[in-house]
Amino acid sequence: MTIVTPYTASANNGNWHTAARWQSFLNPGYRVSVERTWSGAPCDLLIALHARRSADSIAGFAAAHPDRPLVVVLTGTDLYRDLAVSEEARLSLALASRLVVLNELGPRRLPPQVRDKTEVILQSARPLPAARKPGEHLAIAVVGHLREEKNPRLVWTMLRRLPADLPVRIRHVGEALDAELGREARAATRDPRYRWLGGLSRARAREVVRRSHLLLHPSSMEGGAQAVIEAVTSHTAVLASGIDGNAGLLGEDYEGLFTENDVDAAGALVLRAARQSRFLDKLRRRCERRAPLFGPARERAKLLRLVDNCLLHSERPIR
Predict the structure, then answer these.
(1) Is the CATH code 3.40.50.2000 the one for domain 138-294?
(2) Domain 2-124+295-312: CATH superfamily, name plus number
(3) What pLDDT band is residue 314 in, cutting at 50, 70 and 90?
(4) Is pLDDT at 155 greater than 60 in this prediction?
(5) Rounded CA gap, 16 and 165, in Å?
(6) Residues of the chain with CATH 3.40.50.2000
């Protein structure tokens, strides 16, 4: 079995972590390799992350092995950008035996004719014990490499608009994948309430989140943000843009959602969390109730059921 992902471990991003985690889930029962592209080597099943970026591997495998199952996992850029403009991405949907989306609202962005072969598999994170939070200020974590889709400018603009005496501290984890955004992050550090930590290991980033009161996640495009899942499973509340990739993890009625790119709405939620401990506790408890959805055993069971069913019916692929 082969998992194709366009990113390597050095990217340290969500797609790579998904591929590595799924390999670990499947390895006890299957021989699984992770590759950037399908090499043409024989395999009983191909799992491809990213309908557009992995389109060549998807088309090549489908042509070489039309009788073998092919699973396409749709990322945020697939669902919320590429399907509207990329013929390659749309062809990947048609070629797939099964489609996987990573948030509960993902299926509604797919053409009706492929929804019956679509499954939702929520990603997981190992639960961590609650940490002692700072008592003298509201600690906010932001996790995501600096690129437009993660919308880091909302964080910097929001901080400038917050009252200067508001006791908040923002720690921002992520490499500058965009040079201009890196310059803006360095400029933002002139405010002593903001620290840009750069790229950290996953374990260190999780510790930043675990010791914060809030994760602020203002992204404009997500398939199912691992940072949100890691906050929820670390007893840390979340404030996030109300895009499907966040609402599809937290619930559409979650009170910590704000309209995408609405700086004032995000700031109002931060103010409320800083000044109303009951509101912050309410968000944290709501996240804790969602945490079982993101357990590793649950994700592994759904993945194994998908793979087992695909292989069982490999002589009769669904098209």
Answers:
(1) yes
(2) Response regulator (3.40.50.2300)
(3) low
(4) yes
(5) 40
(6) 138-294
Q: Counting Cβ atoms within 10 Å, is residue 314 exposed (0-12), middle (13-18) or buried (19+)?
A: middle
Distance in angstroms (rounded) separating the CA atoms of residues 185 and 280: 27
How confident is residue 6, by pLDDT bands cut at 50, 70 and 90?
confident
Neighbours of 48 (CB within 10 A): 27
Distance CA 249, CA 258 (A): 14
Tokens of 176: 């500058």
Half-sphere exposure of 238 (CA within 13 A, CB side): 31
Per-residue confidence band for 319, with pLDDT thresholds at 50, 70 and 90: very low
Instruction: Give the N- to C-terminal CA distance of the chain in Å, as an integer.
Output: 20
Which residue in 193, 196, 185, 195 sits closest to 137, CA to CA?
A: 193
Count the alpha carbons within 13 Å of 286 in the hemisphere toward its beta carbon. Answer: 19
User: What gap in Å lies between CA 132 and CA 130, rounded to an integer?
Assistant: 7
